[in-house]
Amino acid sequence: MEHRNVLPSEQLALQGLQEAHDTRQWPHVVTLGDAWLEAQGEMPAVAATLYAEGLMVAGRIEEAVLWSGRAVNAIPAAFAVPRIAALTTYGRALARAGAYTKARTALAQAVKIPTDHAETQEKQGHIICAISDKWRKGWALQEQRLAEPEKALPENFRAWDGRTAEPVSILHEQGIGDAVLFARWAPQIAKITGHPVTWYGPKVLHRWMADIPGVVLGDWAVLEENREGGAGVRAMSLPHVLRCNSKWDVPMPVAPVSLQDARSAFRSSPMLTVGVCWKGSVSGWHDFERSYTPEQFAQLWAPRDHVQFVNLCHDANVSDDAPFEKTAYADIYANGEAVAGCDLVITVDTSVVHIAGSLGIPTICLVPTVADWRFEWPTGHNTPFYPSVTVVRRRNIRDLSAIDTARRMLDAWTDAKQQVTA
Questions:
Q1: CA dist., res. 229 & res. 161, Å (int)
Q2: Angle at 41 (CA atoms; ends 39, 47), nearest 5 degrees
Q3: 26-40 and 45-57 helices cross at what angle (nearest 10)?
Q4: Same domain, 182 and 206
Q5: How far apart are CA 78 and CA 82, in angstroms?
Q6: Whole-model pTM above 0.85?
Q7: Is the peptide bond before 251 cis (omega within 30 degrees of 0)?
Q8: Among 88, 115, 142, which residue terminates a domain?
Q9: I need a labelling partner for 314 at 20 to 30 A (CA). Which of 65, 134, 241, 267 fits?
Q10: Rounded distance, CA 86 to CA 84, Å?
Q11: CA 418 to CA 306: how far, in whole Å?
Q12: Quick count: other Cβ atoms within 10 Å of Cβ 164?
C-alpha cells in the first residue's frame, strides 16, 4: 500500500465509506470495505483507516491491526491529520489485540505529530492524559477544541481564568457521567471566587447538580434573553483552568448532600445488596464494546444465598431469568437513590460508575481496553477519580473474561459477607 490521492473512480466509494463511518453505521463500513477489497484487492490508506475502525466493531481485530498498520506505513508524516488518525486507529487495534506495548508506541507517535487541526488536537490531548503523566500538556492541548464553533464558549461569555473572584458559570459538556465527574470542581470554584457556581446543562442532571454544595442551576432561557453570561468555563476545561497537572491534583468526588446523607445512614443487612448495570448509552462512540447483553451479564446475577440484586440499568431489556424487572429512572438523582442502597455495584463504563464512585460505594467497573484518561491504562485496576472503584478490562468484544473476573470478585464479597453474618 502507498499513500496516494484517491482516484476519480474511487471517490464515490470513499465518500460512502466516510459517511458510514461518521454516522457510525459500522456494519455498512465493513460491507463497503469488504466489497472494495473484493473488487480492487487494495485500497488507499485513508480508506484503510476507516475500514479498520469498522473491523474492530465487528470483532475482526487481526484484520483491523493489518489494515490500520498498512495505513500507518503508507501515510507520510507531512500529512499530519490522516497520519494521526491512522496511528490512533492502529494503537486502538493493537490494544484490543492485547499488544499493549506496541499500542502505547503507536499512540505516543500520534501525539508527537504537530497539527493545527482543532478536533485532532483535542484527541491528542485526551491520549496524552490516558497514556502518560503529562496531564498539564494533555489538558492544554485538548483546549484547542474551543476553536471549533460548536465547542466554543457562547459569545456572551468570557473565559474564566481560574483565579478571578467573580461569579462563574459551568457549561455542560460531554456525557452525563462526565458531568457527575466534573462536579467535584464546583466547590473549589465557589471557594476561589466567593460566589456560588451557576451550572447550565440538561434537565436529567438538574436534581443532582442542584444538591451539590456551592452550585445553583442556570436557566438557558433567561440567559438567552439577557445576553449577559459573564465569566464561564466549559466542563471539560476545568482540569486545565484549575491546574490539574497530575492525578495527585484531582479533588475528591462530590455527590448531592441528600444522597450523601442517605449513604451515611445506610446499614448493611444480612442480605448483600448488589446493583448491576450492563449497558451504556448507544450514543457512546465505544458502546459496541463497553456494553453487554443481559444474557452475557446473567451469570453475575445467578441465584446466590444471602444476595439480592438491583437493576441500575436505565430502560434496558432484561433476560428472562433476571431477578428484577426492566427499570426506567426519572433522572440521574433517582438512579443515585437506588445506587445509595447498594453494598456493591457491578457496572460497565457509564453514568452508574460515576454515581457510585461519587458516593464512595465499592464498585467493580468493566471497561474497554481503549486508552481512556478516566482509567489507568493499559493494565491498571484503578481510576484517579474514584478511590472506591476497581477496574476490570475487557480486551475486545469477543472477550467475556471480564465477566468471569467480576463473578469471582462477587464470590469473594459473598463469602466475606457470610463470614461476618455467621
A1: 15
A2: 90
A3: 130
A4: yes
A5: 10
A6: yes
A7: no
A8: 115
A9: 267
A10: 5
A11: 8
A12: 11
